[in-house]
Hints:
Elements: E1 2-5, H1 8-19, H2 25-71, H3 77-104, H4 107-112, H5 114-129, E2 132-137, H6 146-167, E3 171-179, E4 182-189, H7 196-216, E5 220-225, E6 231-238
Parallel strand pairs: 2-3
Antiparallel strand pairs: 1-5, 3-4, 4-6, 5-6
Helix pairs in contact: 1-7, 2-3, 2-7, 5-6, 6-7
Amino acid sequence: MTSIVRNYQDVKELETLRQHGTEPEKEFRQKTKTLLRSEENERETIAREIHDDLSQPLTAIKINLSGLLRSIPEENIILLEKIEQILDLVDSVTGAVKRISVELRPGVLDDLGLVAAIEWQAGYFQEVTGIKCEGDMRPIDINYDIKLSTAIFRILQKILANIKEEAIATSVRISLKKKIDKLYIKVIDNGNETTPAQILDHLPFRLMEIFERAHLFGIEINTTGKINGGNTITLSIPLN
């Protein structure tokens, strides 16, 4: 087994190479922190507006169309078929609205907490990608505030997105364990080994966001890959 990214310091060095020293690190961190917070606030606002402004009207449209369908004589086949087609379209749009809203801000994270949200994300990832995703979510009593829970959840989302795009995996396993003063989250896939070159290539985008979020909340990330395929990413999060 070869270590691909030992910890945040490794990625920090790669990031410095990317910046070519054009911006002081402290200023860069502050800008990133502000950007990530603004993004999360926008996600929450848009998700709420989508639910309020689109979901409810679509439900009302479907109810009215269903009532209209029942009132049309059976012999008017053409009109009945048209209304049924419109109902199918409304269902399709409603499904898309729900999917977009959930991806922006899953309600389970706010309502049931981090562990339930990770369980949901594993199932949702499998449903959307077709990649088998199992979860080992033992009952864990953790009381992170919503900002840290959101950061952890977003990091996990980005890791899964990276697996889908880069690892070409057929199965993923997510496990949670609490030991003494830390929570450990492991994401194991059976895809292609992640190389340092791949990390450097994608650092300004998906992976850079992962490590920036981790840095802001004191989360350690360790990544190892096997030569014959497969990667393990471990998040170490202080319980206090």
